[in-house]
Amino acid sequence: MQKKPVVRVAITGAAGQIAYSLIPRIASGEMLGKDQPVHIVLIDIPDSMKVVEGVVMELQDCAFPLVRGITATSDLAEGFKDVEYTLLVGAKPRSKGMERKDLLLENAKIFQTQGKALGKHAKSNNLTLVVGNPANTNALIAASNASNIDPKQFSAMTRLDHDRALAQVANKLKVPVRSLSKFAIWGNHSATQYPDLSYALVDGVQVSSKVEKTWVESEFIPTVQQRGAAIINARGSSSAASAADAAIKHMRDWSLGSNGEWVSMAVPSDGSYGIKPGVYTSYPIVCTGNGKYEIVKDLKIDAFSQNKIDLSIKELLEEKAGVSALLK
Ligand code: NAX
Predict the structure, then answer these.
(1) Which of 113, 163, 121 is nearest to 138 (CA)?
(2) Does the CB atom of residue 13 touch ligand 1 within 6 A?
(3) 207 near 169, Cβ under 8 Å?
(4) What is the CATH T-level fold of the domain 7-156, as seen in this structure?
(5) Potential cystine with 37: which of 6, 147, 187, 218 (Cβ 3.0-4.6 Å)?
């Protein structure tokens, strides 16, 4: 069998807690396949580079056969040079007394700079996953500033929300997660997201025929929407291992295909379901491989779902209005 050429994979926020779980899994081949050699590029701000040095040492000590090189840098021109896969994880956390809109603007600037650098230095086929919050709007900013790269090569992560929802349903119905299909998250990666069970199946049977409406509305939806906050309450810090796991699955399906299964990804709205172009929103998606995907079309949306989707899109439009100066 012919050997695959090495691909460069860049991860920002490399000194952070999500990256700590993420990097070894990329390096071991869980994201791009066990036959895909990788050059891992670790990017963080200068103040965090000492920690990144330690991450590099640990990565070396894992002696992963697929790792053909490691670069650690704060310089985006060096870090994004010829990258084919980029995971934008790094972002500023909210500091004491900071308003959500201040955080939005602080982080927006980071993603503007990174989008510009990707447009200049990354390979034209580069796929970028945005994890850093507010992920949907950061994806919009990065894509809008990355000249020469198709906005469809950017997406934001709602896979963690998707998997959290599957786990809740599997637990309720006492079935393995793999029995579930045709589930999706709509909207923003925030508390307005809409986890939609309308089309979900358990071993081919409608989930809605097996659970009470009150459970869906009063337990399932709020639990999924508030799961991030519940983890912070319990752990004292935000989701890391599960976020890394979701990022691996998002990139794996996007690059290798989802085998006809529905997944959730925030992608540029294309007018489907009345969501006008101009935001990155989560839809039910089927990934067809090589960075291509299709939004699942022609689903009937009932009034309850439409109301939830509208609320989340309204929030996305408000976030967009707050960063309009940074959009091209
Ligand atoms: P940490 O605070 O542990 O790490 C963040 C890292 O980013 C730090 O090393 C910091 O130095 C670095 N950083 C800051 N500015 C940077 C810049 N301009 N360039 C490169 N690196 C920079 O955060 P962590 O827990 O790893 O979370 C990272 C981001 O993921 C946060 O924005 C968080 O809110 C977001 N999340 C998104 C999720 C999603 O589903 N989309 C879920 C998990 C997580 O909450």
Answers:
(1) 113
(2) yes
(3) yes
(4) Rossmann fold (3.40.50)
(5) 6
Which residues are within 8 A (CB) of 24 and not within 5 positions of it... i.e. 6 or more apart?
Answer: 58, 59, 62, 64
- What are the structural domain ranges in the chain? 7-156, 159-322
Residue 37 class from Cβ within 10 Å (0-12 exposed, 13-18 middle, 19+ buried)? middle
Residue 210 has which token pair? 């097996």
107 among annotated binding-site residues: yes
- Residues in contact with 125: Cβ distance below 8 Å, sequence separation at least 6, in sequence order: 84, 153, 291
To the query of whether residue 39 is one of the catalytic residues in this protein, the response is no
Q: Which CATH architecture has domain 159-322?
A: Alpha-Beta Complex (3.90)
**CB 104 near ligand 1, within 6 Å:** no
Sheet hosting strand 280-289, strand order edge to edge: 67-73, 38-43, 7-12, 85-88, 127-130, 154-156, 263-268, 280-289, 292-295
pTM of this structure: 0.97
Per-residue pLDDT of 151-200, as tens digits, reads 999 999 999 999 999 999 999 999 999 999 999 999 999 999 999 999 99
Domains 7-156 and 159-322 share a fold: no
